[in-house]
Amino acid sequence: MIYQGKAIEVKALSDGNAELTLDLQGESVNKLSSAVIQELDEAVAALQKESGLKGLLISSAKEVFIVGADITEFHSVFNQTEDYLVEMNLKVHKIFNAIEDLPFPTVTAVNGLALGGGCELLLTTDFRVMAEKAKVGLPETKLGIIPGWGGCVRLPRLIGADNAIEWIAGGTENKADVALKMGAVDAVVPLEKLRETALDILAEAQAGNLDWEARREVKKAPLQLNPIESMMVFETAKGFVAGKAGPHYPAPVEAIKAIQKGATAKRDKAQEVEAKTFAKMAKTDVCFNLVGLFLNDQLVKKKAGAYEKQVNPTKKAAVLGAGIMGGGVAYQSASKGTPIMMKDINEDALQLGLKEANKLLSKQVQRKKITADQMGEALARIRPTLSYGDFKDVDLTVEAVVENPKVKSAVLAELEDQVAEDAIITSNTSTISITSLAKNLKRPENFCGMHFFNPVHRMPLVEVIRGEKSSETAIAATVAYAKQMGKTPIVVNDCPGFLVNRVLFPYFGGFIGLLEHGADFKQVDKVMEKFGWPMGPAYLLDVVGLDTALHANEVMAEGFPERMKRDGKTILNVMNEEGRLGQKNDTGFYRYEEDRKGKPKKVFDDSTYELIKPLIQATREFSDEDIIARMMVPLCMETVRCLEDGIVETPAEADMALIYGIGFPPFRGGALRYIDAMGVKAFVELADSLAELGPLYTPTDKLREMAEKGERFYA
Q1: Are 282 and 78 in contact (CB under 8 A)?
Q2: Cα separation of 191 and 44, whole Å?
Q3: Which family does it belong to (predicted)?
Q4: Mean pLDDT for all residues in the chain
Q5: Which SS3 state, helix, strand or coil, does residue 44 take?
Q6: 210-222 pLDDT, tens per residue?
Q7: How far is it, in rounded angstroms, from Cα 501 to Cα 519?
Q8: CA terminus-to-terminus distance, the chain
Q9: What whole-number distance in Å separates Cα of residue 433 and Cα of residue 405?
Q10: Measured between alpha carbons, how far is 329 from 333 in angstroms, rounded to an integer?
Q11: Angle at which helices 285-308 and 651-662 cross, to 10°
């Protein structure tokens, strides 16, 4: 044995080669923590001292190669100074360069995922062999940083600057055939032939049939671009990527700049440029929040996984109510492999549901995500029916009929008599209490909420709502089914609006208040979109449907009258009275016309001002800061109340629900991270400055306590 650590071992092989194997003890995957990097340094030093070696094979003993750096360390490490981060990266460069400079040929056998630092490690070797199902990529820009261990230096020299920019700026995971075509790897083989092929390549290099030294020099030399080519590649890419990433995500463009600045330099100098850019990005708020988002997502997945282990998978599902929502649920279930029955009381509704599923699957075929055969298989998993005939063998049913408590209660009671005694029944409702819907059921323990967000195929969140009598088995089965559907389930407790809508409607309340005090709805939309929301509140209300919003608002007002009830008519009432329902009938705050692709295009409608004029109490100018404060304080305050009331268990789940459910700007990390970033004390002071606007803006006693003690939602 040449070296033995807790994550890395290096042993001599009988043919004169050495094998460095990654196998992190106590973990299901390999990741490059600071401790593993230290071991890698020691292992490379041991290799340098070993005499008589002819070559090196780098491999993994786990199902993945390396998933990347240990992201759990990022917040504490990135809290250090820029100079510290530059020095830290240069130390890693020294280790990676030592692998690249070994006095014999080297090869990496990529058996599974090789991402981030794992991908950068394999770029150090002279040759790379991939298993057919393996993937490689540099996803760092998705965390607000850039590849910092040589990705911005070696990858462009291997596959060309344009291809490298596409991989790095997009943060993509790339399949083996793509990597081979680009020149990132040298061979793609079945997994069982991976090690044998890698050793064969070493033998060919040692025999002089493959010029490993020439390959190495290409990676260490400047990029082979003349000034005109360089300008065309980098300036064009910067403009395109900046437009696509948007102003709130600087890392993709900074990565291009780092590649460009290092293009004319040799390896070590180019790495200095990369290290400095990495350090600069690591210190940004965007990076801090995106790393936090990743950690929150891991926690949410871990909790869902724990529920999943408690139950058997759903083998057969059903959805009651076809239409757009039912068709969306059926499509999602069937496309992910779970057969589903789709029941309605009339044939036209069933055809509408099937049409929706067919349309979504056809788009997948057009985008080459699936084949026509796979589309046919998915459609075959959807069984439309007008009767309850085969419901006895359904494991879980999603009720998705009209949002009316009387109708839902009647349908649920009828359904309960048609399914097996241990079958789980769920209701897709956005506001109606799960506890109240369970009152007429004989087995309320088998019932819970399963709130999908529209459109079902796009929105990742599913709220799983625990009623007073919902059993842990019902919750676990529903979470597991949501995961089977490819969704992110978050468990919340029952209350009007649950978590997401309960938080959203104070945000809308802030918007209505702004309009009544003379704000221009177009200005509010622009400010909140600039802030980072995918659409402003007026546009969002149009998309939700102003009739749907009014109904939900009434439910919320009844549930929380002390802060959400309003006397007299509101702008929502007036819009509904005038038949302005939003996109669904082409007129709301805006008018909607079809664009060339047949999608609704927003058009300004002057008549909206006249319509809402009688409800405007004053006319004044609002700064962008005023608008942001009046919109965000009620939303954040209600999120705090949901956490304090136990509607949601952790700050991480609250923030992820808002990001996945209503498009809260990801780079801001969520409502509670937004408060943390401002400082709890500063947030309370801001809320107090808006006290005249009513109870939606009033801090809770516990939040005031946190402010006094200097506490945060996240440690």
Answers
A1: yes
A2: 26
A3: In the N-terminal section; belongs to the enoyl-CoA hydratase/isomerase family. In the central section; belongs to the 3-hydroxyacyl-CoA dehydrogenase family.
A4: 96
A5: helix
A6: 999 999 999 999 9
A7: 24
A8: 43
A9: 9
A10: 6
A11: 100
Environment class of residue 652 by beta-carbon count within 10 Å: exposed (0-12), middle (13-18) or buried (19+)? buried
Smallest CA-to-CA distance from 318 within 385, 402, 243 is with: 385
Tokens coding 201: 């390549």
464 beta partners: 450, 491
pLDDT band at 618 (very low <50, low <70, confident <90, very high): confident
The letter for the amino acid at 618 is A
Domains of the chain plus CATH, in order, are 3-283 (3.90.226.10), 314-494 (3.40.50.720), 501-709 (1.10.1040.50)
What angle is formed at CA 689 by the lines to CA 653 and CA 537, rounded to 5 degrees?
Answer: 50
**Going by C-beta distance under 8 Å and a sequence separation of 6 or more, which residues neighbour residue 192?**
none
Helix (H) or strand (E) holding 115: strand 114-115
pLDDT digits 0-9 by tens, 497-532: 999 999 999 999 999 999 999 999 999 999 999 999
Chain centre distance of CA 150: 26
Q: What span, in angstroms and rounded, lies between the C-alpha atoms of 539 and 416?
A: 39
- Bridge partners of 342, per DSSP, are 319, 384
Of 282, 457, 430, 448, whose CA–CA distance to 363 is shortest? 457
Residue matched to tokens 């268990």: 649
CA 80, distance to chain mean position in Å, is: 27
Structure tokens that stand for 447 in this block: 């019932």
What is the sign, positive or negative, of the torsion defined by CA atoms of 77, 78, 79, 81? Answer: positive
How do residues 386-428 score in pLDDT, each as one tens digit? 999 889 999 999 999 998 999 999 999 999 999 999 999 999 9
Q: Which amino acid is at 591?
A: R
Indicate the SS3 state at residue 476. Answer: helix
Instruction: Report residue 206's pLDDT band, with 50, 70 and 90 as the boundaries.
Output: very high
The DSSP element (H or E) to which 488 belongs, if any, is strand 488-493
Distance in angstroms (rounded) separating the CA atoms of residues 493 and 484: 22
- 559, with CB counted inside 10 A (0-12, 13-18, 19+), is middle
Rounded CA gap, 198 and 200, in Å? 5
Bond before 455 cis per omega within 30 degrees: yes
Sheet strands (E) in 186-233: 187-189
Q: Are 127 and 186 in contact (CB under 8 A)?
A: yes
State residue 317's pLDDT score. 97
Q: Quickly list DSSP for 3-29.
A: EE-SSEEEEE-TTSEEEEEE--TT-SS
CA 521-526-530 angle, 5° bins: 150
Cα 5 from chain centroid?
Answer: 35
Token pair recorded at residue 203:
């033998």
- Tell me which residues are annotated as active site: 451
